[in-house]
Design goal:
826 residues; 16-stranded antiparallel beta barrel; two-stranded antiparallel sheet; 25% strand; disordered N terminus
Length: 826
Amino acid sequence: MKNKRNRLQVAVSGITFCFLGFGVTHLSQAAIPSGEYDAVILAARDGQTANALEKLQAWHREYPQNQKILYDLVVVYAWAGDFNSALAYADELSVTGTPAYVLKSLGQSARSAERWTQAEKIYRLVLRTSPDDMEARTGLVHALLEQKQPDAALQYVQSFLPAFSSAYKRSDAAMVTLLGFVYTRREEALYAANAYQDAVRLDPQSREAYRGYVFALNGAGMPYLAARTADKRKDWFSKEEQRQLAHSVAGHTVNFGEAQLLVDTKQPRFQTTDAAIAETANVLHHYDPQPATQFDRMVALRDRQLMKQVVQLYQELLAAGIVMPSYAKAAAADAYLYLEQPEQARDLYIAAISEAGRGDVANIDTWRNGLAYAYSEGEQHDEAQDMADGVMKVTPTLANRGIPSVEAPNGDYPTATVTPALMRLYADRLNAAEKHLAELRGIAPFNGQVRLAWASLQSSREHPRAALEEFTLMQMDDDKSLGAQVGRGESLLALNEFAQAKIISRPLTADYPEDKGVQNLARKLDIHDRPFLRVSTTIGKGGQLAGAESIFDAQLYSAPLTNTLGEEYRVFTHLSRSTGSIDRRLPTETSVPRTRIGVGLDYRVRDLEIEGEVNQATQNADKSGIALQFVKYFSDHWRMRMAADSNVNDLSAAAYNANVTGRRVLAGVTWQQNESRSIDAEISNTKYSDGNNRDVFGIAWTERWISGPIFKLDSMVSLATSRNSARNTVYFNPISDREATVALLGEWRTWRRYRRWMVQQVQVYTGRYSQEGYNTGTTSGLQYGHLWSFDDEFSIGYGLGVSMHPYDGVREKRHYGYLNLNWAIK
């Protein structure tokens, strides 16, 4: 439309000039009063072309030899926009002797009818007799350009000008202006701006040259200079053109803001983006709101992480029925994903990709990666993995930089190769993620994205020390890496280095409050700083002669004693209540409860956790005591635990009913390869107050066989043996026994929404139990439960179970239910 509007402007000015030469010469040959003829022509000039054409057509039929009537008829046809009718006389009039104004009108009609070859022929005819006719030169240049002959057009214009612009004269201004137009059509904006600037220098009052200079500057990527230049002659630019320039300024500021985000850090990185947001607001305020500016504003708000405003603007445009381009839809998708609405993000990414045009090619892979994350966060993990794998396959390692045979490393390739591993990591397919990342580490061991993903994998595989080491090395190599800083803070928190984690978190929260990783670290520290309640309850009936049938255990921890003892300390209260029947096989069933209340101190530092309490039993076998627990971590793979309790509260009811108490010490060691494989061994000694000594040893091997986003399957094989020194006690007390058990533990994640989820858990086991003096018997059990978790602040698990176990040769059946709760109290 812009080119056509320029053509029409040239046509109107040329034809108007021609009409100034209209007269009554030769009309004396016809019986047409000169006053009537002039009136017809003046009416046509005023836009009343229909009546004028009717008159001129009638006169032409009556006086076919009168060329003046034919000339004016052709011109008025052009004025009326009936170009084909005008061109019907082109062959007849395209001869030497036809006035220039008639030929130029025919040339303009040919241009308007897009008959470019005919237009070229007509203009060349004019130039034979009028070689300096600027209108004809201009028309010829237009015709050449429209025939895809830009080189011919340029050579033609340059043939009239000196080789160097310093030699231009005032009389060259029109041709220099035309030179600028040719460069514009050749999409050589800098050359066009230079030519127009020369034309303005030669003729400062040339409106056409000045406007061309402004628009060429804008096209050359200098909208700021273009806008300032236009402001000096605002009356030469329409309101819409001023809006377009202001919009261009705002759009370029958005682009510069995105470039700044890649190199600057902390809050100053948003300075240009903030300016872009202000500029788009200014354009929308001072001019009629246009969708293009609103689209740019969406992008700027997205870059500024003002995602709620992005969504609000998107919904307003959607409600108004405005068709949005792919890049605007992608910005809205980014916002929805940030706001944890992955389904909306998914649909918008798909729309952006499917509707992408040629100008969006550079962004499509970014949108596809966004789609992979939307699939992942929407629990469509297979689709996420397929999308990430597809992007990796089509992303080249090298990218052409616009020069044939000159290639450089593709900056998008690391993201494309790492994302498939991350999709597997988020889907709990950790073995596959590790295999993929191990290959990448072999190829690019120092790549920042590969290292970040590897460190995150170590965290997921319960290797916090390895993760911390990698994050720390990364931060040393690149102190601007936000991912390394956040990962280091989370690893320190996992290793009980609370103060160090806070030292990292506080400045990050101040400098990057909008970052999801920074927010997540701050949230975890906030949870850590709260009081904490832990409840574990089992209510059972029958089949548990070796210990308590039902146990209620609750511990309430204070917030860290930061201002007194230090970040590492908490005080806690402990309530433990156990109940059980003396012997359900007796005719009269007697239930014996025992309650123990304690207070204590919890201490946690790197690689060490200690908890100690003093307690008092208030029912049955009343006794005061102390309890100590000690856990020492030697590495990510090895840890040791020791515990001592002088007032055990989980002995059988028969023992407490006989006023028998117990003291226990235990030691255990765990080897853990990762979250999927571990071996645990434990030995303990319980000294009963009646003189009995019970020694217990057990070992268990746990293996995860299936791991995925929905289902997990673990097995556990355990062996245990015990020996007692006393005989004929009032409680179940075998001389010795041995037990082997094989268990399967299945977990089905039924629902998850980010940090909120619910899983169903099933445990089934079977085994053999051998008690000295009795036949070997079979053990078995089945347990089903649910586990809910809400934002890492509150979790609750509950379920029912049944088990079978022989005691003194009699197979006992037990039914039970359980309820476990963890609550970070705000």
